[in-house]
Amino acid sequence: MYYLGIDLGSSSIKVALVESETGKAIGWVHEPQEEMTINAPQPGWAEQDPEDWWHWVCTGIQKIKKKFNISAQHIIGIGISYQMHGLVLVDQKGMPLRDAIIWCDSRAVAIGNAAYTTLGSDFCNSHLLNSPGNFTASKLRWVQENEPDRYGQIRKFLLPGDYVAYRLSGQMNTTISGLSEGIFWDFSAATLSTKLLDHFQIDNAFVPDIVGTFSEQARVSARGAMESGLLKGTPILYRAGDQPNNAVSLNVMRPGEIAATAGTSGVIYAVTENHAVKEYDRVNNFAHVNYNIGEQKWIGTLMCINGAGIQYRWLRENLSVDTYETMNLLAATVAIGSDGLSLLPFGNGAERMLRNKDIGSHILHLNFNRHTKAHLCRAALEGIAFSFAYGFELMQSNKSTRQAIRAGNDNLFRSEIFSNTIAHLLQKEIEIYNTTGAIGAARACAIAEGHFDDLSSFTAHDYVKTYTPSGNSTAYLRAYHNWKKELEQINNH
What we know:
Largest sheet: 7 strands, mixed
Distance between the termini: 58 Å
Number of domains: 2
Helix content: 25-40%
Strand order of the largest sheet: 17-18-16-15-21-22-23
CATH architecture of the largest domain: 2-Layer Sandwich
Strand content: 15-25%
CATH topology of the largest domain: Nucleotidyltransferase, domain 5
C-alpha cells in the first residue's frame, strides 16, 4: 500500500509515492514539463489560474500511477504541500472568481504596512507574531478595495493547498498552520484573530472550517475521483505550506532544528517554542505543523528571499549556458569573492527581510576587461548565499538554533560553492538529504495515522553528505562584508 504526496509549487506540480509501511520513496513525477506560467498583469503582480493547478495535479496523478503500475486501490492516503500565502477566491458554486494572487505578488504591501501601524506594533508582535505585510489577509483586503464586485460574490477564501483539497473532496477547509501563514491566527488567544478580521472588514463566514494538519481532513469525492484517477473515499490526511512541509521532509520538528531550501525562492526555517521573537516585520513566524499536538505551541520562524534560484535561472537563460552544472563548473574556476564582482539577487518583488522594499537586482563593479561569464556565475551563487547569511543574522536574535542545517539535495544546494559559502559564513554544518516536498507530504500521512516516531526512520535513509566549515573563512567573510555594505547602501538610499 502507498501514500501519495502532492507538492503544488509555482513552477510545477510534483506527485510522489511512498510505501505506507516503510516510508520508502517509490518515485516522483512533475507536471508540466515546462514551468507553469506566472501572469503579471501589472508590475509587481503575480497570478496563476487555479484551474491550471488542478489540471496538472490530475495529470501528475495519472502519470505516476502509470509509471509505477500502481492502481488507485493501493493508495490509502493523500498528503498535500503547497506554495504559501496565496489567495484563491471561490463563489457560491465553488468556482474561482479570479486568478489566484500568489506568494510573490507585491500589490498589498502598502495595505499590510498601514494595518501594522493602525493595529499597533504591540498587538501585531504579541498576537500575530508578524506584521500583516504582504500576506493573504492583506491580499484579500486589496480585492475588497479594488474589485468590489468580485468581493461581493465570495463564498470562501482558500489557500492554494486548500483549493487542491477542495477539488479532490468537495469540502472547503483549512488548518491553523495555514491560517497563520495568512496572518489570520491570534497566537496569544490561540484562535482566529477577530481583531484583524474586523480591521480589514472581512466576514468571518469567508473563513473555511479548521481541520487538524495531521488528521482525516476529508475524503475524495465521486467527482474528485473521476477527474483525478484516485479512488472515491481515499482520505486526505495532511496539508501544509511548502516551507513547513520542507521541514517535515527533513525531520525538522523540534525546537532548535533548522531546515533550508533554495529553489525559486530561498528559505531558512527554524522551529522554536519562543513566542517573544524579534524582527517581526522582516522575519515570518507561523504555526509549525505540530502546533497544538499535545498542546505544543511550537512555531516556525521563517526567513525568505524571493530572489534566489530565479536569479540563477535568469542568468543561465541570458548567458545561453546549457545547464546549471555547466554554470557551477564555470563558477569553480573563479576564486572566492568573484574578483570584486558583486550581485544582489533581489529582483523578484518586494523582499520581506528588506521590510518589503523592492530594490531590484544589481550587478556591481563589473569590469569589462577582467570579468567573464564565469565571474557572473560565481557572483550569483555567492550573492544568493550572502543573502542567506544576512537573513540568518536577523533570525539569530531569537537564539533558538542548533548546529546543523538540513537541506534537500536539489536546486542550489547541489552547488558546492553555494553550500560551502553558507557553511563557512554561518560556521554550521549543512546536512544534505535526498528528499522532496512531495515525498515529505506523502510520508506525513503516517503521522496522521498515529505513527509519529516513524518519520525519523523514514528520513535516516535519505542522508547524502555534510558540508563542514573547514580552514580559514577570512576570504568568505571579506567578500560577504563587502556585499553587505553594498546592500545596505542601496537599501537605505
